[in-house]
Amino acid sequence: MSSLLREFGVRIAPFVLLIFIWWAAVTAFGLPSRLMPGPGEVGMRIYRGLITEGDLWPHMSLTLITTLGGYLLGSVLGVIAGSLLAMSRVVELTTYPIVVLLQAVPKVAIAPLVLLWLGYETHSTVTLVALTCFFPVFVGTFVGIRSVPAVLRDLFRTLNASGIKTYLHLGLPNAAGSIVAGLQVGWGFALVGCVVMEFIMGMGGAGFLIDNSANMLDAVTAVAAMVLLGVMGYAGGMLLQWAKRRLIFWEGDARHG
Asked: Domain of 183: which CATH number?
């Protein structure tokens, strides 16, 4: 129990410190709420928006659902593309430069084109989110599979293992940790991509809420929405970290072996 309490304290301490610095800065400089509200005001706004009034739920749930849809799509495509390029030298030589070229284009610049092609619908946001989170997962998969020790590759060749068996029993397990790292980075990118599209579309979601609140000089609501986005990002990262510890057990064994 003491170890659990100690771990909880270590994890929560940075947030307590951040809130204290936030409160101290607002108090010391005497900032008005319309410019920078204090943590108490933002906390009460979140409580009202989620518990009593419930006006924040439609926007935050829309952002969460849309982000999850695009994130799952982009992650699956990233794993597939990274696996194909890592397992085939020919596919890598012909495709990798194209992937890097597309990644070099800022996703914010692509957003208006996505709206032009797909219209002001939810699938436009899902598409941009997928494009945003694709590359970290792709790189994690590609690098993870390529980092398989040569001696293990030679062993599988000696055993006449097929390409599929080599991928499933060697490449994919070796890349699992890198894939999760890419998924963690991709989740943060996915939230950013979703909010950017909501800024542009102006039809709901956390991005719309922040933009609309700022235009109405309602900084409390805008900051509350940003705090909730931060909670989403942190919760997603922690969930992936928990899944990594539970599912990729052989990495822990290798480190302690």
From this structure: 1.10.3720.10
